[in-house]
User: Fold these one by one.
Assistant:
Number 1:
Amino acid sequence: MIDSPLESPTKRRSSHLWVLLLLCAMFAIGIWIFTRSAGALKLPRDPFPEGISTSLRSELMEAIQRVERNPKATTWGALGELYMAHELLPQAKHCFQNASTENPQEPKWNYLLGMIAEEINIAEALEAYQKAAQMDSSSPSLYLRLGKLQSRAGQFSAAERSLKTASDLSKEHPLVLKSMAQLLAMQDKTEAATIVYRKICLDDRSGQDLLSEAGQWFHRYAISQSEPTLSQRNQIAPHSTEPLPEPWFNGVLAHIPRAAAIAAQAGMLASNQQYDAAFTLYSQLVRSESRNSRSHAFRAMVLMNAGAVDQARSEINRVCETFPGDALAWTCKGAIEAKIADYESATSSLKKAVSLKPDYLEAHRALLMMYKLREMPTEIAGQYQILLNLSPSDTDLRADYEKFAAETGSRND
């Protein structure tokens, strides 16, 4: 109907007002719907960290779009696995938490949350693993991780129960037995630990790595070896023990960059003092995976060994600034600082490394060396105790400690 020119202005204004109010209401409803849906989907903070490769950015974008189209546990989990494979752990944690919220009965997400938390927050990791165990009690790798973590936390009785469960589920897998033997040794249960080490020696699944550890234990306590002898077993044993399967980790493994072969080759070249070639390969890894702290740290170590110490120190400082939570980077920083006799800075860097990863054996050994160079007997004694708790079957370490204790009268055990 066309408005009559004779219609009153008041009536026309009233009609226009109602139309305007209706449009405003529709707009407000649209905004509410949009903000409600956008607020429900909270992506990780910094979803595309600076320095990631173009290809990884593209992969992340596709995974994020799948979450946006269908925000369920599997899509959140797949995005988290992609982040975790590239060591973007805060983003991965966010995704796994969302996946767990979407499907609270799926143990996989708590398992992966536990793996992320292991080196950062032991209590948080324990809680995640215990939640996973309540949902699925059939995974030996879960109980092995839980038992090892409980050992680190000093929860020895709980650790024994978890490792016993892992042993039963895995048919006494030698890596589970190793953790059990170490736990018994930490409690000075020498006879019980010896029985477990004998089982390891008799298991065809044991590699030379475990047989060597068992041999050190027998030598330390002058224990006669079981048949077949260790020398006979070493001739037929594989070089290393096959790890327990971790099916909940397979999704992460599928996304790990195909750089392992290059990294292995670079490491071999560095160990053979072919520093130029090793530097070239590590530089290749840095270019292709700029967020991989290992490549940066190892390249800095190659520079140090090649004599370019100032360049090495500059590079490792950047690595620690970029990856402040990486214990290996701080250990490399300490090694480079020690190379130029800056022992105070090296000590500080190594203390940072072991605070990030309390069971990091190499960092503790380097820290012991720094304390010796700085002639700090109290710290030396304390560091020996930490190392002996971490590696109770290391006979050379035990002998070094016995000599130190005899010279200083500082024996504590």
Number 2:
Amino acid sequence: FKNKEEIVLSAIVSHADYFADLLQEVYEKRESIKENLFEELWKCYRAFYEKDPVTFSAWQYLHQREMVTNLSQGFRDILYEVGSRVVGLQHKIVGYGVTEQIFIQCDPRTLAEVIWSMFLGIVYTERSKHRLSHKNHMTVTMDTAGQVLSQGVLNPSRKKAGDGKTACRADHVMQNEVEPVKI
């Protein structure tokens, strides 16, 4: 390595490749895990984080707008390449879930971003709480979040057919023309 940037880049690329391999494995076995697709995707996220939390944080930190603009063009290009592979696989997995009606019917790219953002929010919130209070609730929070995302936040006894709540339809969302559909 010639400098610190190359050392960090090497670690991030290796870690992102690990994540992409996990996601590729889920995508390849999507038919056989269809009923547990969300759970398997969530396990990938957790494994990616738990393998090396420091590199995970560095990867996320370097993807922030303020940081990206201060990186060399070569570094940005490499981050874009490895990030694109990961995001593309997330979109393919969630797209399959939407197409197969495993997931709610909406733009799969948006849904993939929502799931990933929920995961990131939990990681950063729990890490901050741990630093401030020295309490660690990461595992229980991750477990609960996975359950909530897979089941929804409403108590099943509170859900009513045709109660006026709406969901988005993928064919309209793709064109930015959201037309509510009764569920």
Number 3:
Amino acid sequence: MGLSIEAPSSNRVAECDEVRVTGLPGAGVHILVCHLRFEVRDVHEAILIRHPRIRLALNSANTGYLGCAADDHHTYWELNPQTPRMQMAFRVPITSKQIEHIERFRASRDLELELWFFAEVEAASGRRDARDAVNFKVPQSEWIRVLEECQFKRTLLYEFEAPDPNASGDEDINALVDAAQADLHAGRYDECVAKCRQLIEIAQGTSSTHQRVQSAGDRFCDASSRRNMDRRERILFLWAAMRHVTHMSHHGRPAGFSRDEAKAVLGTVVSLLPTFNESAFIG
């Protein structure tokens, strides 16, 4: 991998042969866990690796720093000729805004990251600071799994929560939201918008509800009627507008939606879903 640790005598005593990333949910943040596996070699004396830590950044000159972290399990490692390897884990907390920035940088491709490793190396022969860096890629399929693990995919635009996957009665909606988000993260933006139209159809349910939505759209188009629309009709008009936005993709016509546009459609539709769960609203 190109990441190594040298002893005070300058011989290389550990070399990183694996860098991988997993995710964890956090309180108000998302956690990226960077796992480093070092193969230990050519250790001729007892060596202490103190305060191992990393700095994580996007691999780009124009964007950058994501966060720093210390080894989650050890403040130091003791190496001797019998030590086979070191397995370090670093928890880097990042915000939803940072992930959105990452997604724009990634642009539906593999994610390229830069990782700097720091530590203090001590032995009877002396002391030195370890400092090394490596650029590595997280394949798109693995990155999407990381987003799931840190529960970023449960949070949409403006932190509107996606439907609870454990709730009964909403299996079709849950499946469509998951599928739409998968399309969004994979760069299939027209397909994402098409699934939003399916969400609208399922949420509206009965033909009477569909007629209410259509009526609200018609009233909005008439200037005199628009002024007299009540709160419920104005919310229903949003549903009518989203039906119109998703029309081309729903019928398989290429629309060329961008990521931001598809995200806006998905976020809007998901944020409107609770309005069809209020019996007082649709009654």
Number 4:
Amino acid sequence: MKINLYLCTLLLCCNMTTGCVSAWMTTGTGVRINDGMERSEVHKILGSPVSTGDSKDFKSRSYTYKAEEIRLVDVHLYKGKVNTVDEGSGQAIMNALTLGTAEVIMIPMTAAEIAIRSSTSHKISVAYDDNLRVIDSIVTDPDKD
């Protein structure tokens, strides 16, 4: 009976300390451009593009494997946090490996990162197919052209 109490207490403590609050904070803030979104949805999120061109005008190597599919490329300047595909995965892995004790350090660090990234400007290039749906997007620093 005593061992069952210890086991239940241990399981309860493990469960309570593996909440991944920092991972939730990271993924719950910012915007994300998903493949398959319509162009009008992207414009609602990011605003009007600063430039628009076809795939011939687009010179990024990241699109070369899909160059024949690209019909249109919009370039947006966006001030705020832009989420990437792997957003929050680092926090979740650290949380799992340390049974939640990393949250003591990760929550303040994540809050500071969100504040910094929310005031940063980004250049977002969005490529569309023939149906004006997102094929791919690239987020870069506007000063590094």
